[in-house]
Protein 1
Amino acid sequence: MVAYLGSPSSRHLWFALSLTFAAIYALLAMMRAFSAEFVIQDDARQHVFWMQRFTEPGLFPGDLIADYFQSVAPQGYAGLYHILAPLINPILLHKLLPLALAIVSAAYCFGVCGEILPVPFAGFAASILLQQCLWIQDGLISATPKAFVYPLLLAVLYHLLKKQVLATGLAVILLGLFYPQGVLICSGVFVLQLFWSPRLLVPPLKPSPPSPLTRGEGESPPVPWFPRPLVPPSPGSPVPWSPLVGLVAGILVMIPYALSASDFGPTIAADAAKLMPEFLPGGRSAFFGEDPWRFWFSSRGGIRLSLEPPLMAFGLLLPLLLKFPRQFPLAPKIHRNIAILSHVIISSIALFFTAHLLLFKLHLPSRYTQHSLRIVIAIAAAISLCLIIDALWAFMQTISEKKHRIGLLPLPALLVMGLIFYPATVKNFPWTGYTIGQFPALYQFLQQQPKDIMIASLSEEANNLPSFAGRSILVGREYAIPYHTGYYNQFRQRLLDVIKAQYSPDIAPVKEVILKYGIDLWLVDGGAFAPGYLEGNSWLMQYPETAEAIDRLKANTLPAITPYLPRCTVFQTNDIFILSAPCILFGN
């Protein structure tokens, strides 16, 4: 049974297990998605809410927030939701997609690893490590564009390694339609594949004893290839059609992005961003001012290399293990395809620093490393684990006394158990980031209002209203994304106007905001007029207007809107009040 772990005939078993674990993790998350009537993933509140327009065209008319997030949605991503909208509501679809994305990612991860080390257990280990990594953060679960980078980037790598020309080109096009930054990473890989190739470092080794991962059927190990150093391909070598076609496909799919101009541009300049509180420590999109370690490794500007689950750290050992092929008998079975891991790393790091040089023009630098390096580290860790387990088994065969061999069995067993049972050690696995609506009566009340109403509020609950009630809000923390000035200058002015109005001792600013922005309803938290309400809100505390409001509240100067709460409230639930804007304007 031990010898069966890596036999060719076991490939289907390990592949099925890979898909099974991916499906189990996704189904656990799906249980939370359907645990209440009003549930949505945190990031989906930005990227999915506006898609309700596909099922109800009258929603969010002239809505700045909805128009902006629709404009930045990749065409393939928006198109998928649009095509399926007649069958599945977008809010429902975003809860179902992670299951499909997880299974496809697991399948391709298994396949990519198999093209590097043809040991089925390695593919299983790579797949399960990547899945565990993805289900403790908010990438896959969100069903936003970044969720698609994993199956599609892995698809590109798999078809590239298989030398499947048309499939490679198609996968690149799909990646560009869903996550354009991924195409830039792949383009770097294609260039490296076209102009550099790994060199043979060591001669073939003699056949090694049977191991639990290789079955030892008497075959000679293949020629060992390793990813360093890189040398130009020799003249007269076959034309590498897959990377060539992939590169052309990448250029073609990126041309529309390069030629199109955002309706909400331009992108903010780095010098301007350094002066805005939104980009400073404590800001909504903090980027500058972090300590160097955090800035370069874990912030929005950092590489964000993930070593969770802990076994992912074994991926860092792979270059060292490959220096000792005789100590690790499975090493000679590693194919020269392993060079693709170094190609992905080189391309990702190069784009990471390019994004820093062109700050915000290519969006956030971390976009070019956090996803691709997760894939690389998962595959490298799986290969390392296989090398170590196989080496331990080979060492055990050299021990003459059976009791001593049995004493070493717990070592590989612990590694396998750590791989499989890691989720049991993690609180709230899988992590979903789902937001559960706490005020169903509020959402139902707003759903009964006209579709074109506009709601002003500084409440955190306002962030949920576009998704749960399908109604427009003037501002909300979740939508305060400051990268495009054409959008954010308008958004920021709206926010400052609402802060000034809600906490003004004069009712005139309130009426001015109502008329200026066409406000129909004003949502106020019951505790909104206590100083601590504002002091505990890091988003609002970015602005001087908030400090002024706190000073007035501490001086017992009540905002002019407070007397309107009793007579203009049209709906109340718990500690949330909905005020009629016409009532505030006309006093009736």
Protein 2
Amino acid sequence: MTALTLSTAGAATLRADAIVVGVAKGAKGPAVAPGAEAVDKAYDGKLASVLESLGATGAEGEATKLPAPSGLKVPIVIAVGLGTAPEKDEAYGAETLRRAAGVAARTLSGAKKAAFALPTEAAEDVEAVAEGALLGAYAFTAYRGTEKTARSTAGGKGDSGVKQPLGEVTLLGAKPRDKAHKAAVERAISLTEEINRARDLINTPPNDLYPETFAAIATAAGKEHGVKVQVTDEKALVKGGYGGLLGVGQGSEHGPRLVRLEYTHAKAKKTIALVGKGITYDSGGISLKPPGHNETMKCDMSGAAAVLAAVVSAARLGLQVNVTGWLALAENMPSGTATRPGDVLRMYSGKTVEVLNTDAEGRLVLADAITRASEEKPDAIVDVATLTGAMVVALGNRTFGIMSNDEAFRTSVHEIAEEVGEASWPMPLPTELLKGMDSPTADIANMGERMGGGLVAGLFLKEFVGEGITWAHLDIAGPAYHEGAPYGYTPKGGTGSSIRTLVRLAERTAAGDLG
């Protein structure tokens, strides 16, 4: 993980591989952002003109490298775009700073140390820049070749050619002795470490990450950070009657698991339960996915990774709220023992479900976990899942959908997501779609109408929420796994979508802001 420190050193005196400054789109061309005054002075006040001559505009996502003048002790200056300059007396938004810092960190991969001289007047700015830098610097290198194979592919140089993440970030302009600034950095480090842990899990190939190994990783993380972990193995799931988890997992040689995480605080007045879909690989089962749709299905456990990260983050931050996490882990594979279309499963709740499509498996494991979580009567349940392709069709690759049995709670979750910089959108649960899940054989079918499929899945899950419990469902199928080129602080591969939303929800609950 990239190290991060605050420094009172001046931009002109700090030694590093590079210094990062912000540049905005001004009315008359590029405008140097606050924090870069010393760097601009080293260019005799002409940094904006130099950048303009190099084609820089200040647009978001832009990064311009230029040699540093003799007045600085760094060889390179990197100017990152901040978009349109704010009006006088207004500040740059947190997400703008977060993305710019992420662009800079990605640009600096392979460097040992960089100074960031971005606008950091308020503690919120410090936290945003720190988060962006630490998330942007992420790289998944666990499966890069050994030294022997690296030599054979890199001309005998003993170097795989893959640049390592930026080694150290030093934030200039922040105040190391200021309690608010210090707390902002500590929060950013704790949160981004857990987001990057989730990214690692999502990116891990399914021959190494399956229910048993995922449960072991969760157990180790809990032990490290004071979170109680209870793992229900396949034998115990059979005894407990968890028909959804067992039905999905019975086609694989890697049996399912239900992992319960518990963080408690002595002064907590509220309890929230987080439930994550953890399909460590989704082949579709007997309803097999076609080529082109199964290559990235290691990411189908992104919801469980998000829940693990959120619970551990709550513990690391010492939030005054009780948080339980439920990881519904299974591998969905076709075999002679796999569930067939037409089979009926008796769920943990006692309801029976006719399985019309074995590729609609996430809702089955979530249903058991939601029922189990409901038994403990939490104040709210939030489930997170890469649940439906229909949600991606509706909202695209960068926005997750929010459904709930409580309109005010859905609005609160949406506002929180927007506040922390995660694109989301509230979605309805139209009751007329329920009829499509009628079954002549069982209490309910696991499929309904094709149109509005993401909403149908939400309605199915709602059937398993305990009476009187506030519930929300986050369908993160779009933003959980990014297949395109990196942007901002978002890498290629696992993203850690929804984690910041869940942690802020826990913080708001601890503060009593959610009723």
Protein 3
Amino acid sequence: MKLRRRAARYARTTWRVLVRLGAWSLLEAGQTFLAGYALARALDAGFLAGDVRTGLLWLGAAAAAVAVGAVGTGRVYGVVAALVEPVRDRLVTGVVRRGVREADPGALSGLTQQVEIARDTLAGLVLVSRSFLFTAAGALTGLFSLDPLLLAVVLPPLLAGVALFAATLRPLAHRQEAFLTADEALAGELGAVGPGLRDITATGAEAQVAAGLGRRVDAELRAARSLARWSPARVAALALGGEVPVLLLLVSAPWLLRRGVTPGALLGALAYVGQSLYPALQNLVHGLGTSGARLTVVLRRLVPPEQPARTVRPAPPEAAPESRTPAALALSGLRFAYGPASEPVLQGLDLTLPAGAHLAVVGPSGTGKSTLTALVAGVLTPGEGTVRVHGHPVPGPDAAARRVLIPQEAYVHGGTLAENLTLHRPDPVPEDELLAAAEAVGLLPLLRKLGGPAARVDPAALSAGERQLVALTRAYLSPAPLALLDEATCHLDAEAEARAERAFAARPGGTLVVVAHRMSSARRADLVLVLDGPRTVCGTHAELPAASPLYRDLMGDWAGASDARAGRAAPGAAVTATPPPAISGWRRSGSVRPSSG
């Protein structure tokens, strides 16, 4: 969606602020109206008629209008702040979100410079645009009140000047953006060349580097010249709209006086044009012509194009032919080591996981379970091989939007519970949907205990298990279809863990990968990946005891009974009430940081 549509949508949500802005601006319009009208009446009904008292009273009215207008101007600044500061907050939120979720390299510059430029420029544009509109309204109303002939003389060149200026805005913005892009490209190349001058000289690459810099300089020069060509058009617009009306009033003065226009009205018209319309148009041309193009450029960089609307939950895999539906997770030849001299943690791993599947990852400490989730989340980069999430390569912004990682150490920030739970959702979440998610994952008792979604959260006052429930519900509400639970339920009891995993497995179109803390997680999964170095194998819980000695050891005597408790009893398996054992001696391998989806 284009910036103008976003601006219109924002204006609809802040109409009360705009009404207040218009109300206080009317005082300025009244000041402008009386500036010329009172001068005309003071001359015609006062001084020229020999009535000095009446003349002084009209001038006093004009002075009082100036004082009232000053009050309105002071109030306007506060209203403009109420209009602009929410825009700044939204821009900051967007920049921080992209920096955290997509590792946007421009986030720091956007946060420290571009957001402030956008805020200050927008405030200036609102002020000059509002001032021109209300000043023009007051002056044109005054001209019509003095004599319609005066309006007929002033209005045509004013409209022509404004139209000419408006026609320059779009090409000026494009050329301003091209100039800034060329300037940044030159600065970036100079920044790369400066530290490497010794190497450039040593390798004899001076000519090649100079040629590259020369092309950058030429590109910036062309952009600067193209931008400069539009300056005369702005000067012409200002002259046509602000200076030609004065000239026309002077040239047509004898004709106007013969048709009944009074000397005071003529002087008032000159005051309207010279003291009100021309300064307002000048501020508009300089402010909107330069700052408007600058704001457009900055906003295009800070506000990414909106993606087509999509549902919060991805469509089930049956919605498209199987041949055209990419796998939820595809690993090919995956290899990773924590150092060039280290033994690979993962070596030659191939895995294809269809959308909607439920995979449990098991194995002893150091076999790469958490490393695998970090690779899928884009926190780590494989030494060899590829990782694709729903057909999109990792790392990458498209893949980042399709997976969410819940680590063992759950993150909860200060603020309301709703703010914590909707961190991955750019738009407001209906309370019914939030409560349904809390019910599914098992957070609802804690939510009620805290006082509801609007309750403030003190992260330090929550237990480790409660923080995990908050993080799990946050991930459940995420639009990302692939959920990665890296021992994310280790502080929950077995029943709460089972409930959370079943909720994620039942998400429409959702795919679940669980680094198992208890072997009951493997029992609930459709597939189990046993990480065991060269003996790594993937299969169902029923198949793996025969295929993997390690899996058989992990299951112990409980392996057969677990299938029966899952409702998938193997032939001859006995059903017992023995609780599922935790996998003893496991620790998290690798270094995993929280990653947003």
